[in-house]
Amino acid sequence: MHSRSIITAAATVFVGQALATDAIPVTGSPAGVVYRAELPEEPFFAGADIEGNVRGFISGSAPADGNGVAFTVSFENLPTSGGPFAYHLHAAPAVDGNCTSTLAHLDPFMRGQQPPCDSSAPQTCEVGDLSGKHGTISSTSFTATYTDPYVSLEEGVGAFFGNRSFVIHYANSTRLTCANFVKVQEPIHSSNHSLTSTRAPTPTSHSHGVPTGTGSFTTTSHGSSNPTDAPLPGAASVNHFSVPMLLMGLAAVIFAL
């Protein structure tokens, strides 16, 4: 039984790695769509050494070329200790202000949180790991503007964030505060702008430039302690022959023990 448990755990990890792929750039973001999440008045973490809560917001809209999402990030009144602070898009909205209910990071390509995100290769990071790709927070106030090519404004796509949330974490992964995104503007219908996101092929090289922002680019291990979510709609396809055969082989080994 012990041997079977070890093999089962190893098989789960191996299959998860086999399914993971690089994020796919998003094109054709609908013009005029804006989602914004503003932090509440009280922090989620009761031990926060601040008066009130962190103040600020994240907003996302379509850039001029319709590729990815242009983000504006603005925070102030962060704690003077416990940083550098990380912030991520999470898979679910917060229920009644409970940041635990946001689940894990937005990760439709099943990348997982380890190893930590490499900002020089953002396509290999979790889609929702904004601070990993664009810089963590090392002061009591923070502003940044950047375009993330792997996040989507199109509903129904795995990389869509408009019905989700973001969470600010201490360096030790404790959830400090969170907020849900809401739509604040509607699409602009234009014959010159596609309203349908194109599923671009997986890039053949990792030469994408890292969007610039005003945050520091400190590499740190951070994120939710929750397990990575199951695949979300719009995740990249995988080889439909090799994975089932792998699973069948592993099952045969497990049940033979």
Summed up, what is this model?
The protein is α+β, with helices and mostly antiparallel strands. The protein has helices at 2-19, 130-134, 242-256; strands at residues 26-27, 34-38, 55-61, 69-76, 86-90, 142-148, 165-169, 175-180, 182-185, 198-199. The model is unreliable at 1-18 and 190-257 (pLDDT under 50).
Structure description:
The protein has 257 residues and is α+β, with helices and mostly antiparallel strands. The protein contains three helices and ten strands, in the order αβββββαβββββα. It has helices at residues 2-19, 130-134, 242-256; strands at 26-27, 34-38, 55-61, 69-76, 86-90, 142-148, 165-169, 175-180, 182-185, 198-199. The strands form three sheets. The chain has a five-stranded antiparallel β-sheet, with no helix packed on it. Strands 5-7-8 form a three-stranded antiparallel β-sheet. A hairpin with a 5-residue loop joins strand 7 and strand 8. Helix 1 runs antiparallel to helix 3 (242-256). The longest helix has 18 residues, at 2-19. The model is unreliable at 1-18 and 190-257 (pLDDT under 50).
Keywords:
5-stranded antiparallel β-sheet, 3-stranded antiparallel β-sheet, about 20% strand, disordered C terminus, about 260 residues, 3 helices, disordered N terminus
Count the strands?
Answer: 10
Helical stretch count?
3
Structural class, by secondary structure, is alpha+beta
| C-alpha geometry | globular
Share of helix among residues? 10-25%
Side by side, the strands of the main sheet go 6-4-3-2-9
For this entry, what is the oligomeric state of its chains? single chain
Distance between the amino and carboxyl termini = 8 Å
Sheet with most strands: 5 strands, antiparallel
Rg of Cα set: 19 Å
Strand content: 15-25%
Low-confidence sequence ranges: 1-18, 190-257
Protein name: superoxide dismutase
Domain Superoxide dismutase copper/zinc binding: 57-171
Keywords: Antioxidant, Secreted, Signal
InterPro entries: SOD-like_Cu/Zn_dom_sf (IPR036423), SOD_Cu_Zn_dom (IPR001424)
